[in-house]
Amino acid sequence: MSRSVLVTGGNRGIGLAIARELAAAGDAVAVTYRSGEPPEGLFGVKCDVTSAEDVDAAFGKVEAEQGPVEVIVANAGITKDTLLAIMSEESFTSVLDTNLTGAFRVAKRGVKAMMRKRSGRIVLVSSVVGLMGSPGQANYAASKAGMVGFARSLARELGSRGITVNVVSPGFVDTDMTQVLTEDQKKGVLSAIPMGRMAHPDEVAKAVRFVASEDAGYITGAVIPVDGGLGMGH
C-alpha cells in the first residue's frame, strides 16, 4: 500500500537514492532541497531544516499533495571539516543545527500525525564517523553520534504507538562528497574497509527501505551499519 514519505536532502547523493528506492517500492515520495531543482518524478519542496518555519511549511505542502507523512527519512546534512584548534564556534554549531537539530525539527513536526494513526517509521541517516570518530570532523561526528541517542530515546517514547525509530549508518559512499578525495586519500580509506570498496548509494537506500518496511515492524532503536565492516565493534 502506498504511503506518504518525506526524505530530507533528497535531491542528490544518498538522499536521492533513498527517495527513488522508496518510490520504486510504490510509496508517494516527497523530498526537501535547499538549492537547485527538485529531482524529476518526485514531489519537491524547498526547505532549510535549520528553520522550524521552513520545516512546518514543507510538511504542509507535502500533506496537501500526498497526505499525512507516514515515513520520515532525516537525511539532510552538511560538513565543515577542520581541526578543533582552529574550528570556529559557527562551524561547530551550524553542523549540529543542520544534522542533529534539523532531524529533531523534522521528527517533531511529523510525529503527531503518526501518533494519531498509531503507526509510522522514522529513519535517521547517521554515519560510521559518529561512532568511530574522525580527525577534523569533531562537529560532524558529534552530530551523527547524537542521532543515535535521539533515535533510541524516541524509540522508547513512541514504541507503544506503533512507531519505529531507527538509524542507518553508512560508511564511505561513492557520492560527490567522497569524489573530492585524492587518490592517496581514497587508498587510505579503502585499506581500512574490510570489503575493500566504497558503498553505492543504492546499498544505503535498500537498508533504509527495509527498516521503513512492514517486514521491520519489530525493529526499533537499532543502528544498521552499511559500511563494509569499517565500523565493526562500535
Automatic annotation (TrEMBL):
Keyword set for this entry?
Answer: Oxidoreductase
Q: Which SUPFAM superfamilies would you find in this protein's record?
A: NAD(P)-binding Rossmann-fold domains
EC number(s) on record?
1.1.1.100
UniProt cross-references to InterPro entries, sorted A to Z: KR_dom, NAD(P)-bd_dom_sf, Sc_DH/Rdtase_CS, SDR_fam
PROSITE patterns in alphabetical order: ADH_SHORT
Pfam families for this protein: adh_short_C2
An example of a GO molecular function for this protein is: 3-oxoacyl-[acyl-carrier-protein] reductase (NADPH) activity
Per its UniProt record, what SMART domains does this chain match?
PKS_KR
> Is-annotated flag, keyword NAD?
no
- Keyword Transmembrane present in the record's keywords: the answer is no
Q: Which PANTHER family match?
A: 3-OXOACYL-[ACYL-CARRIER-PROTEIN] REDUCTASE, SHORT-CHAIN DEHYDROGENASES/REDUCTASES FAMILY MEMBER
Similarity comment: family membership: Belongs to the short-chain dehydrogenases/reductases (SDR) family.
NCBIfam families tied to this protein:
PRK12826.1-2 (NF009466)
Q: What is this protein called?
A: 3-oxoacyl-[acyl-carrier protein] reductase
Taxonomy of the source species: Bacteria, Bacillati, Actinomycetota, Actinomycetes, Streptosporangiales
